[in-house]
Amino acid sequence: MNIIEINDFSDPALDVYARLTEAQLLNHHLLKEGMFIAESPKVITRALEDGYEPVSFLAEKKNMVGETLEVIERCGDIPVFVGEFDLLTQLTGYMLTRGMLCAMKRKLLPTTGELLSRSDRVVVLENVMNPTNLGAVFRSAAALGMEAVLLTPGCSNPLYRRSARVSMGTVFQVPWTYLDENWMETLRKHGFKTAAMALTDDSISIDAEELRKEKKLAVVLGTEGDGLKENTVADCDYTVKIPMSHGVDSLNVAAAGAVAFWVLGKH
Fold it and tell me: 264: how many CB neighbours lie within 10 A of its CB?
């Protein structure tokens, strides 16, 4: 293993962990130079299993055992920067979960058509910007029978460190990509009916028989505060609500998604 003890914060090889934002890493103009940060052995392992290429590791010295060591050993001679907990927190600006980070290269995303052609149940997220909620939606989608996640350009990136960590690495297991502005038309061309999760006068219950009978269905969820855009709701084939009690009128987008995926997913 190529173990490198950190003694110089200015080392350019540490820029990916210390001086570049996640947006700068992901949105680099050349795909081959684009990277992201994966956190914790489980998340890193799932990324490796999905074919993402590791560039370097950053690890807490005392955690160079068990799962952490196994992950590092499978990656050959790439640099492994190590240091004490306090030093790594100072370097990155946050506490490491399970004491390990990995800088990885991006991959080309599949096209919308590729995902829709091999799926019957998909999730559409409109302007979901909170990385924690995004990661939670992915985890539920993976667990509850959804075959792909499609995101409008206003969504946070699933490869952000927090999204990937909250998802427990399922952002590397559930196929996903970004949509263009004509996404509703694209879904229809591939035979999908759309179900907007929204409270309107004509909303039907999530357990309505006609929803379960649809061969191809896209569950459409909106941003945490405002929900779906009015024109999105109007353009969907169904408007769907989750029956609730005690005067509760809405759920967090991740919680609503989990309920919808359980009822409507491909089990």
Answer: 23
